[in-house]
Amino acid sequence: MAIPFDVLAEPSRRQILDLLLERPRLVGELTEHLGLTQPGTSKHLRVLREAGLVRVRRDAQRRWYELCPEPLAEADAWLAPYRRLWTDRLDALERHLDTMPELPGAGLPGAAGEPGPRGAGDADVPDARDVPPDATDGEAP
Q1: How many domains does the chain have?
Q2: Does residue 103 sit within a domain?
Q3: What region does 21 belong to: left with phi over 0, alpha with psi -120 to 50, or beta?
Q4: Running along the chain, 141 residues long, what does each successive block of 10 average in pLDDT?
Q5: pTM of this prediction?
Q6: How far is the C-alpha of 91 from the C-alpha of 96, rounded, in Å?
Q7: Which keywords does the record carry (predicted)?
Q8: Any idea what the CATH number is for the domain that residue 46 is in?
Q9: For the purposes of burial, counting CB atoms within 10 Å of the CB of 30, is it exposed (0-12), middle (13-18) or buried (19 or more)?
Q10: 23 lies in which domain range?
Q11: What is the per-residue pLDDT for 128?
C-alpha cells in the first residue's frame, strides 16, 4: 500500500506516530499529549488507519492504537536514493573543504580560549580575563 505524503505532512499525525513508536496508546492519552479535542484526534487516527500506518486493537471497552511500521519501510525505501544523493553531495563538499588551504587569521575571536580583539571603548569595561581568580561577586579586582 502506497502512503501519500500528505498523510505524513500533517504535524499532529507525525506526533501520533512518534507517540505510538514508544508503545500502544488509548485515544484519551493521545488526545492529552496532542492538546487536541477527542474528535480531532480520532479524525487523525482514522486517516492514519486508512493509510495503514496504525491499527486498532480492542480490549473490552478500550481501543488501543498501535504503530504499523511496514508502510513506513516503504516510504523509507522510496527516500533511500535521495538520502544517498545528499550523502554523496555532503561527502564531496567535505572533500573539497579538506583540500582548501587554511587562511591566516580565519579563526573566530574567542574560539579555543583565544582572546578577541578589544576596542578602544572597551578599556574601562572589565573583562572576565581581567578579574583575579580569588575575587568574589561585589568585590573590586
Answers
A1: 1
A2: no
A3: alpha
A4: 77 96 95 94 95 93 93 86 89 90 68 52 52 52 47
A5: 0.59
A6: 9
A7: DNA-binding, Transcription, Transcription regulation
A8: 1.10.10.10
A9: buried
A10: 5-68
A11: 52
Cα 6 from Cα 3, distance rounded (Å):
8
> Would you say residue 84 lies in a domain?
no
67 burial (CB, 10 Å; 0-12 / 13-18 / 19+) is: buried
- Closest C-alpha among 69, 9, 12 to residue 41: 12
Q: Is residue 139 in some structural domain?
A: no
Other C-beta atoms lying within 10 Å of the C-beta of residue 31: 18
CA dist list (Å): 8 to 42, 71, 118: 16, 11, 51
Q: How are strands ordered across the β-sheet holding 54-59?
A: 25-26, 62-67, 54-59
The answer to whether position 14 is within a domain reads yes
